[in-house]
């Protein structure tokens, strides 16, 4: 069953339950009146707002924190920042005004540059280069994406380009051309492993050897591969009363990967790690703390085992911040291998929360500007990283790893320093 079918099934279940409740109410009225069915005015739904002794729907839960704590809010990062995980095509949709507005946000927040991960080799790459680089080349690097489908039909995997002989070699050639044009890396999305299918209907394996030439090419070209494999642990568990992300999954049931239709999360992460091990000359960035921030001890073992593995923090301060002691030790110990990311562009308040999380020891604050919080009903605590760790996280590691970053950071810092000179 694909995610779309699961979503429809969820809604059919809700409608059926509502119908069942309505039917039971009618039957009760029928028998209560001695078998004479009379028209009754429909009863309005009970207001489940938690007031006056009423029950409360979880989606209406809006607790106000009663703690009175010292706050150290941040309006900009302490050092120049390289955001290695952003999506300027998917989120801005080629809006020049939105781009101008966000560059202004970058200026206010001390963000030197962003890596946009939306350069699909299907032809969108050139368009995206023009959109970002016509006026802001010094503020963006771009990662390419594999064009798995090519000219095939979306609903017919057998027609997809990735199943034709020589696909990996052709993609390697396309990447070589893209690097000549200035591309800085390759981004692989989570659909690889969770959605893309073979001609027989089975899911394509993350470590399918047919695609080894692509990973090899990235190593030879000197560009990193940022790979998103699997998703949060809760997304692979049943949507029930024990799921800590129930509220989120009740709004997005199609985000669930629980059941026999999908590989296990453990299987997916192991397949990704086999790629990393098999291609030691290629640098891999595990997106979203290698998509295992719930188990930092295991992520640490991966970093110890695979010297070509890096991680980045996009959209995972919600997980790191609820384990601040463990997270701080982890971020310091592996400070040479961790990059900063947001999964943005986000509203500016989300950036301020990131600076507060990494730079202060503040307690019990929201990890998002959204209400309800989008990734779990909890708050986070700051990890107060030392300055030398912040510099590595914010820009030094990215400058070492990603082509095109170091020179852009140097230009940004020089421009900032020239403005503050008397």
Explain how this protein is built.
- There is one protein chain.
- The chain has 422 residues and is an alpha/beta fold.
- The protein has one domain (81-420): Metal-dependent hydrolases (TIM Barrel, Alpha-Beta Barrel), CATH 3.20.20.140.
- The protein contains 16 helices and 8 strands.
- It has helices at 3-32, 88-92, 96-109, 124-136, 167-180, 191-194, 212-221, 246-251, 265-278, 287-290, 296-305, 317-320, 324-333, 348-359, 387-401, 405-420; strands at residues 81-86, 111-120, 140-145, 185-188, 225-227, 284-286, 309-312, 338-339.
- The chain has an 8-stranded parallel sheet.
- Helix 5 (167-180) packs parallel to helix 7 (212-221) and helix 15 (387-401) crosses helix 16.
- The longest helix is centred in the first third of the chain and has 30 residues, at 3-32.
- The radius of gyration is 25 Å and the shape is globular.
- The relative contact order is 0.13.
- Mean pLDDT is 91; it is low at 10-39.
